[in-house]
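Researcher: Here's the sequence for the chain we discussed earlier.
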Amino acid sequence: MPPNDRRSGGSDDQREHILSAAVKLLATAGPSGLSTRAVATAAGVQTPTLYRHFVDKDGLLDAVASFGFESYLAEKRAFEPSEDPIEDLRRGWEAHVAFGLSNPAIYTLMYANVRPGQQPAAATENRAILCGMLERANAQGLLRVPVEAAAVAIEASTTGAVLLLLTQPEQARHAQLIRPLRDMVLDALTEPPTPRADDHSPIADRAQSLLGIITPAGNADPVTDAGFSVFEAGLLREWLTRLDGAYRSGRSTTGGTMLPE
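Model: Thanks. This is the structure I predict for it:
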C-alpha cells in the first residue's frame, strides 16, 4: 500500500473510508468541491487508489448519491403506516422536505445531478415505498389517477419545491412555504374518504340542522329578521359550518382530536 494510504484493512473498509471523506467534503465544500483529487487528499489516499474503488468521478458521485438515498431510506423504512394512507402521504412529504433542508449538499447531488437511465438502487426502493402508500390509497378508492401518475406528480412537486427552497438563503428556507403546494397536489390526486354510516356526531347534526333553519330563503333572512346585522348573520353561519365540519371529521375547532362519543 502506498505510504500516503493511511487507511489499513480490507478493500471494503478502504472504500467506505473514502466514501465517508467524500460525504464530509461535500457537506463543507459543496458539489463543485468534490473533485477526485480533493477527496483522495481528504481520505489520505493516492488518487489511483480512489479510481480503483470508484473507476472515475461519476462513479464516486453515484456512490455518494447512493449514500444519501440510504440515509434517507433509514427513516422511510421505519415508517409505520396508519389507517389513513392520505395522512401517510403527508407525513412522507414532510419527511422528504425535512431531509432535503437538513442535508442540502447531498440532496442537491441526489436530485439535481442525476443522469438519464442511471439511478441508485436505493432511489428505486424509495419509489417503491411511495408507490406502496399510493397502492393503499387506491385500494380504498381514494386515488383519482393511476398510481404511477400520482408517484410522478408527488416526486416532481417535492423535489422541485425543495430544490427551489435550497436556492434561497439558509435563513429563508422554511418548510411551511411549500405546504400549500403539498395540499394542492394531494387534493388534486386523491378523493376525500366516503363517510361511513356511523361517522356522525350529535353536535355536527345539530349544527347542520340549525344551518338549515337559518339559511336565507328568497329575500328573507331569519337571522337578520331577528335583529342581527348582516355581518353577525354571516358570522353565525360560518361558525356553524366550521363546527359541523370539525366535529364530523373527528376534530375540534382547535385542531385537536375529539374523544370517542
